[in-house]
Design a protein that fits this description.
InterPro entries: Aldolase_TIM, DapA-like. The chain is an alpha/beta fold. It has a single domain, classed as TIM Barrel. Helix content is 35%, strand content 17%.
Length: 230
């Protein structure tokens, strides 16, 4: 079973994708971005090509190049780089997952496909399973964001028995305001030691009370690191 070198927890920066005035990706500033996160904000975990990074608005080639640059510039500086590889096309998502494994990503994350939507838990898990299988040695995280995907399958329902289907499953990025669902995810899966990463900045304090082990968002700073300090 794939396992992270250490549990993904605490603050995780949802990185933007730098762009030029002409709409081209601007890889030249990512090194500065890494140094800003590490030195100025004290953040050493990142989530690349997600919603904040507009990953689904980029081409596969652009997503690959952005991921490669973060891995290169973050070497020996960042603790964990999780790359979002979700796509509408299963084959594209698998390609991105395999690429993430090849460049040494510490984890991959996938949202539910949102054009032809999965209508049951089993259909969604089958999609996620196929993507995870393309990177069998990389920790896998489900990215739950129903407000954007329109997929209303509760995260608590999805997590029930998920490691039987996806052995590399390590946790959940929960970007929804349904704190009841989030609380049930935590309460019913304490024995699995999953990472429960909350993704709605405005409700983070409430999520911490309910058992969130980390936060993935665009509002991350050194001031918040005290929430996970020993």
């Amino acid at each position: 079973m794939a396992a992270p070198k250490k549990k993904l927890q605490g603050l995780v920066a949802a990185t933007i994708t730098p762009m030029t005035e002409n709409g081209e990706i601007n890889l030249s500033v990512i090194g500065q971005y890494v140094d800003y996160l590490v030195k100025e904000q004290g953040v050493k975990n990142i989530f690349v090509n997600g919603t904040t990074g507009e990953g689904l608005s980029l081409s596969v080639s652009e997503r690959r190049r952005v991921a490669e640059e973060w891995m290169t510039k973050g070497k020996d500086k960042l603790d964990q780089v999780v790359i979002h590889v979700g796509a509408l096309s299963l084959k594209e998502s698998q390609e991105l997952a395999q690429h993430a494994a090849e460049i040494g990503a510490d984890g991959i994350a996938v949202i539910a496909p949102f054009f032809l939507k999965p209508w049951t838990k089993d259909v969604l898990i089958n999609f996620l399973k196929e993507v995870a299988a393309a990177a069998p040695a990389v920790p896998f995280y489900y990215y739950h964001i129903p407000a954007l995907t329109g997929v209303k399958i509760r995260a608590e329902e999805l997590l029930d028995g998920i490691q039987d289907k996806i052995p590399t499953f390590q946790g959940l990025k929960f970007s929804d305001t349904d704190l009841l669902d989030f609380g049930q995810c935590v309460d019913q899966n304490r024995q699995q030691q999953f990472a429960f990463l909350f993704g709605v900045d405005e409700q983070l304090l409430s999520a911490l009370v309910m058992g969130a082990t980390g936060a993935v968002g665009s509002f991350v700073s050194r001031d918040l690191s005290i929430l996970w300090s020993n």
